[in-house]
Design goal:
The protein has 215 residues and is of the alpha+beta class. It folds into two domains: 36 residues; 167 residues, Jelly Rolls, CATH 2.60.120. It contains two helices and twelve strands, in the order H-E-E-E-E-E-E-E-E-E-E-E-E-H. The strands form three sheets. Strands 2-3-6-11-8-9 form a six-stranded antiparallel sheet, with no helix packed on it. It has a four-stranded antiparallel sheet with strand order 1-12-7-10, with no helix packed on it. Strand 8 and strand 9 form a beta hairpin. Helix 1 packs antiparallel against helix 2. The longest helix is centred in the first third of the chain and has 20 residues. The chain is globular. It comes from Oceaniferula flava. InterPro entries: Ice-binding_C. This is PEP-CTERM sorting domain-containing protein. Keywords: Signal.
Length: 215
């Protein structure tokens, strides 16, 4: 079947854009190993992987207070597990130390410096009585409950614009602080969202010049 010039032009243009976009999209994995950028830091803590920077906007303690309001809460990397948790300044059972994780009511608020798609969250120590909620103004709440350690949760390629706050919180109804009501974050996977590139623009410009000469 012979394609007319208009159809040929459209297909070529789509091909240029698709090739440019696929070349720039990339999976970025935040692996929260001991000693990385978010270990024992509060508001303003950063972690950069493959040119994508994640910044802590705030940390919520077990009592609901904010680090930014003087709560003195921090994120921390659990030393013996290479996983991210929250250190509340004061919590029941002295839970604010490296032996503890995201206890009920504790939350981590963060953002990215580029547009991203949230793809996967890997956690440990999450059981059937623990509820994990991911919230943002960019999407409807994602709520997870599971009974297996080292769980992978599909974040559905959820788009979040640069600078938009995302909250991961232990929203368990039972506020007991013990090992049956907490979790840790081991990995966060995101895709970068490419902007229209110079390759695509140059390609389309060249195509326009060719078509003009044919007219």
């Amino acid at each position: 079947m012979k394609l007319n010039k208009t159809t040929q032009t459209s297909l070529i243009a789509l091909g240029i854009i698709a090739l440019s976009t696929s070349a720039q999209a990339a999976l970025v994995i935040y692996d929260f190993n001991n000693g990385t950028g978010l270990d024992n830091v509060g508001v303003g803590g950063t972690m950069t992987v493959d040119g994508l920077t994640l910044t802590t906007e705030d940390v919520v303690g077990h009592d609901g207070s904010l680090d930014s309001a003087g709560g003195s809460h921090e994120t921390n990397i659990v030393t013996n597990a290479n996983a991210l948790g929250v250190n509340s300044a004061t919590t029941p059972l002295n839970a604010g130390n490296d032996a503890r994780d995201f206890d009920p009511g504790e939350a981590w608020i963060f953002s990215f410096d580029q547009d991203v798609e949230l793809t996967l969250l890997n956690v440990s120590s999450l059981d059937t009585v623990t509820e994990l909620t991911i919230s943002s103004s960019a999407f409807s709440n994602l709520v997870f409950v599971d009974g297996t350690a080292n769980d992978d949760f599909d974040l559905l390629n959820t788009f979040v614009a640069a600078g938009t706050e995302i909250t991961i919180m232990n929203t368990s109804v039972d506020s007991t602080v013990d090992d049956s009501h907490d979790f840790r974050i081991t990995e966060l996977h995101v895709n970068t969202v490419p902007e229209p590139s110079s390759t695509a623009l140059l390609g389309l410009g060249g195509l326009a010049l060719i078509m003009r000469r044919r007219m």
